[in-house]
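Priority: medium. Attachment 1 of 2:
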């Protein structure tokens, strides 16, 4: 009986203590104040177990169709590069400040398509990862998965060709088109390198160029076309949706 009473008092004390802690405001919610290793590990396991469990039973369609991959590439370029990078996009202004840091999908891609689908559709609480299923149907999300699987080691020109093909091909009216980095096929870019091309002017309209302006992104007639997207501002593509 005494043990039970002691336990009860302990539970009440813990609850009251927790409430006081939460209410007091001493906890630092800042994204630049990182978790202790124990808490970080607990959250990682929580996330991994939760995703694995919730993705159970999701039937994965055939993801090898080039049309799906191209369609997914266009969505990825418009919505994901600011946080997850892409071929030719090695940095962004939003990524370093995010906590948890978004994984570099350009390098790692995704291992498990069902889990990737679930995460992209539902997002992850208390992180920057949005639930894209609120604005995109399952087919669109599978296209993105099909593309992200191919991302590791994808050459910059292949990425640009994929993104460019859906952009110019069907006049795809995606909400985020205006924020998509300009992409050219090799031949076209070659003509304009010396005088500054239309794509460059377009990028200049973006309201997000402050620190990019200091860094000329084509300072010579022979500037390799493959380097250009890395010099374009990416974050606006990820944050305005
Ligand atoms: C605003 C930033 C942001 C945007 C935009 C964003 N993500 Fe994420 N994403 C994150 C963060 C942060 C995580 C990691 C969350 C965590 O670890 O708790 C994440 C995790 C993921 C994961 C899980 C990866 C893994 O290995 O566990 C996938 C897959 C993913 N994102 C795909 C996408 C795709 C595809 C898009 C575009 C449609 C996208 N994300 C857009 C921030 C973002």
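Attachment 2 of 2:
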């Amino acid at each position: 009986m005494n043990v039970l009473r002691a336990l009860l008092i302990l539970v009440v004390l813990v609850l009251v203590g927790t409430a006081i802690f939460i209410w007091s405001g001493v906890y630092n919610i800042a994204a630049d104040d990182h978790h202790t290793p124990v808490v970080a590990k607990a959250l990682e396991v929580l996330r991994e177990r939760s995703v694995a469990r919730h993705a159970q039973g999701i039937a994965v369609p055939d993801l090898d169709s080039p049309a799906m991959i191209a369609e997914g590439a266009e969505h990825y370029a418009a919505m994901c590069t600011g946080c997850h990078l892409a071929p030719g996009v090695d940095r962004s202004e939003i990524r370093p400040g995010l906590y948890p840091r978004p994984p570099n999908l350009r390098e790692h891609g995704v291992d498990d398509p069902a889990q990737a689908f679930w995460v992209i559709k539902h997002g992850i609480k208390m992180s920057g990862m949005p639930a894209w299923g609120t604005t995109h149907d399952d087919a669109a999300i599978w296209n993105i998965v099909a593309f992200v699987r191919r991302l590791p080691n994808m050459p910059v020109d292949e990425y640009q060709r994929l993104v460019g093909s859906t952009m110019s091909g069907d006049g795809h009216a995606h909400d985020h088109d205006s924020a998509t980095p300009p992409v050219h096929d090799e031949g076209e870019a070659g003509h304009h390198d010396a005088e500054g091309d239309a794509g460059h002017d377009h990028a200049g309209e973006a309201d997000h160029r402050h620190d990019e302006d200091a860094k000329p992104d084509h300072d010579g007639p022979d500037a390799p076309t493959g380097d250009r997207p890395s010099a374009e501002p990416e974050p606006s593509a990820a944050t305005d949706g």
